[in-house]
Amino acid sequence: MAHVVVTIAGRTYRMACEDGEEAHLDELAKLVEDKILSLREGFGDVGEQRITVMAALTLADEAWVATRKLEAAQAELAALREKEAAASAAEAALAETIAAALEDATTRVERLSLELQSGGGETPPGL
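Predicted structure:
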């Protein structure tokens, strides 16, 4: 288990984290510190606890909005995948129809060719 020392709102904290996560935890602490500094600029000195709670709520709101956007994007992706599957199925059905029509045309041409080779003047049935 690794440890990182971070400073948030002028206070130093020793935090435990998984090995290799030290830089990530440090970045998160900087994000919180930056949010607190930004709120202090906007609201002035409203008390340490209150500004910390405001920062936490602001960051939670940003996370909530990001989560909703991600959910919407995932729903849109799922809908697009469904449309793609439907288009692929329609394409396969069309290819099957075309193949059947070509096979039918080939059969008719072969019949006509046989009829012409045999010297018959009648139109073969089905043409």
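Summary: Helices lie at 22-43, 48-117.
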